[in-house]
Inverse folding.
């Protein structure tokens, strides 16, 4: 008697379980390692990452994570395509629904408004929360998009 074949395909259950664990380990260890590698590559190749203004150093510091995260999304799309699947098969078929955006913006507004109380203590004008100067808006967008 041969190995039992799962009803979902011609791959034995033990191989599917091993592949699942392997992919989980790659995600758990590979993504942080990739962020570290890309961040160090940026530090070595761009002098402003070490000797620039605080704004430049911060933007280049978060760039490593943003680059790796978008490469990860592209890699997942490629892996799904190799398997004959797409994001739509997992229920991700558009940017979102209007109620989902409304809830997300509500929680973002609550988070921002709860943090406004700290601005006067730090001698920061409250208008900076809504119209940030300089690099702050770009940094917030990069971090918000990659975190979301």
């Amino acid at each position: 008697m041969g190995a039992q074949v799962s009803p979902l395909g011609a791959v034995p259950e033990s191989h599917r379980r091993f592949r699942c664990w392997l992919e989980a380990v790659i995600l758990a260890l590979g993504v942080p390692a990739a962020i570290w590698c890309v961040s160090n590559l940026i530090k070595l190749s761009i002098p402003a990452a070490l000797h620039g203004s605080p704004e430049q150093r911060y933007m280049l510091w978060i760039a490593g994570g943003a680059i790796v995260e978008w490469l990860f999304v592209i890699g997942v799309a490629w892996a799904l395509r190799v398997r004959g699947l797409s994001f739509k098969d997992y229920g991700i078929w558009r940017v979102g629904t209007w109620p989902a955006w409304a809830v997300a913006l509500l929680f973002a507004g609550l988070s921002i408004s709860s943090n406004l109380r700290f601005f006067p203590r730090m001698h920061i004008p409250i208008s900076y929360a809504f119209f940030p100067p300089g690099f702050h808006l770009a940094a917030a967008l990069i971090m918000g998009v990659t975190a979301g």
In short: The helical segments are 13-45, 48-51, 54-82, 98-115, 118-121, 136-147. The mean pLDDT is 81.
